């Protein structure tokens, strides 16, 4: 028998001693000193950094600090996730937060210097051999600084935002954290947290789902006034800042973060709208399978079968390596290394943070995956997903630090790609039609989420801002705007909707990222396009795949698709191919459930 794989990660190779690590404390001390030195260096340099040598020296410092700030943040994430009661880790987390803030302020100073270099001198700088590879990110940084207010005003706005903008998100989190939802399950009264209640909404028992949904709506109705305040004020802050900067579209910031054009976004939604009738056909069939005329909001996530297959951790690892290998041998090799060398924290034990993530240590050039593995099919898919993220990072290690930052819309490319490989293999290898149906249904539920649920969030957010420009929006109006958005996005296919969804969905309250919705759908469909290409081209696609991932931090998404897929992302045709591939599963689902 071969030795079982480790299920706890090895953090000691990063910094020995966990939250007591002396080495980590020394690392932070040096980092703090270097940030202070860079700050002083920038203050000394007067009006500009026109000399190529001086400019390059500062760029080198910025990159060296950036990787270490990331390294420190990743270490804290891992410590606090593996043991939520690690108090010293929390204290260290506070110190790392201050370090990040200090570095952020230095970066604003640096941007001021970039602005001070005039056009011709700027071109000369970028022509330098060492700076050329950074041209995209340097130009972007300079342009973004140009489009904002003066550095003094931006610094002031940032400082005020801590208690005047981001605080609304904190308030919202506090409201959700203290909420309980009282439900009766099996004759027993229970006080559930929001997360627990949400899990019960996918119960196989319709009466349970209906009951929990009713109580859920009641609970959010009670908090609607507070949530409406939070949403109105954080939205108002955003609009006021945009107005001062002279920005007229609310999509400008999220599109710029995602390095994409509005045309691209419009084309994507159009391609989805073109196939909404297919999704409606699926929802209608599902209603029939559940024995109802029309699905309720709370039926969409209901399971259609109950095939439970447990997969041991070692089996999951073997499965992942085997299927990765069919697409890209270096992905398989990488995953094997991650399993063997303790890059994954998978153990099912109390005291861990819920959920899963992947984080990276740029100084060590290693990643770590966090999750709690309990043997379900969705655990296998999470494991593949997070390893996809880790692989993405792996192919980027040799790039300059400034070229390693990619936005949320492309961040999910490699992870979704990895998930698709596993999901398709599972459907193909299903033992019988019942098992196949459950697996297909799982995929279709995510398609409904990406094409309908997230579409509704996008429509809502756009309409909310239009209304907010005219003044405060009441909770009742928010309900109405939400329900209209849901009806539109679901093509009226459901019997009822969730009007309080604007309150119950945390994503509307994330201040650092407006429109925290369409990047999900974008990422899924872009990944689908890449996957389709991989299926077409077979193993010869592997090096092209790696090259595409390497460019995710230094190209506009339209250029990324043009360069690596030879496709025009601003057209509906590009997106239609991906959408059609996704909805192809619906045909199979309808065929398997024909006699229902
Ligand atoms: Zn992910």
TrEMBL record:
Record-linked InterPro entries: M3B_PepF_2, OligopepF_N_dom, OligoPept_F_C, Pept_M3A_M3B_dom, Pept_M3B_clade3, Peptidase_M32_Taq
Entries under Gene3D superfamilies matching the protein: Oligoendopeptidase f, C-terminal domain, Oligopeptidase f, N-terminal domain
Similarity field: Belongs to the peptidase M3 family.
Domain Oligopeptidase F N-terminal positions: 114-180
Entry keyword set: Hydrolase, Metal-binding, Metalloprotease, Protease, Zinc
Protein name: Oligoendopeptidase
Cofactor field: Zn(2+)
